[in-house]
Write a structure and sequence with these properties.
By secondary structure, the protein is α/β, with parallel strands linked by helices. It has 9 helices and 8 strands. Helices cover 37% and strands 19% of the residues.
């Protein structure tokens, strides 16, 4: 995972909670064509594994076309089945050491909420990126942990592992996070559930 100060591909895009119809795939292609997205994470909590496989295969083709890394939320075994680029692990998911045995040298990122200690543990076992949040109120999931800009500065002092900021990120607050050295911004609702802008318009506002 490379990151630098001129990182134009700073968006870590997360799928909507439910993929309702085929419009999603054409919108996804448009959004990825903006060349602002480095990662796409498939996060479908209420879908069967069979459906996740079918959906995942379609998404993977689009991700490859636009050179976007395709990650699976929570499930290293599904990531392996789909030959995805990696997976994201929450604190209640499989531990990273076990996941590493399944996924070998693929990308594995870890949720650290708002905790330096969780970050240190994840760094120790070789996480490829650390996700912190929620920085702002979010409608995508219930916010149990709130992270402040201070945590970004603290983490940057102890590691060069890339940082993903998450939670309620949209056009009027994203720059603050980039200025405070977040490498990537995890965004979902602002793109997929935006009442004002279509997905492509929404991502184009993030300059």
């Amino acid at each position: 995972m490379r990151s630098n100060k001129t990182n134009k591909k700073f968006v870590y895009l997360i799928s909507p909670n439910k993929i309702k119809d085929d419009n999603f795939y054409s919108n996804l292609a448009l959004v990825l064509s903006s060349e602002k997205v480095s990662f796409f994470q498939l996060r479908l909590k209420k879908e069967t594994n069979q459906n996740k496989l079918i959906i995942g295969k379609k998404i993977q083709i689009i991700c490859r076309k636009y050179k976007v890394k395709f990650l699976i939320n929570d499930d290293p075994l599904l990531a392996k089945k789909l030959n995805a680029d990696g997976c994201h692990l929450g604190q209640k998911d499989m531990d990273l050491i076990k996941a590493r045995k399944i996924l070998k040298n693929k990308i594995i990122g870890v949720t650290c909420h708002n905790s330096i200690n969780l970050a240190k543990s994840a760094i120790k076992v070789g996480a490829d990126y650390l996700a912190f949040g929620a920085f702002y109120a979010s409608k995508t999931k219930i916010v149990k942990y709130r992270a402040s800009l201070k945590i970004l500065k603290s983490v940057k002092k102890i590691t060069s592992v890339p940082i993903v900021a998450i939670g309620g990120i949209k056009v009027n607050n994203y720059k603050k996070l980039l200025l405070n050295k977040a490498n990537f911004l995890a965004i979902s609702g602002y793109i997929w559930n935006n009442k004002k802008y279509k997905p492509l318009e929404a991502i184009k506002k993030l300059k």
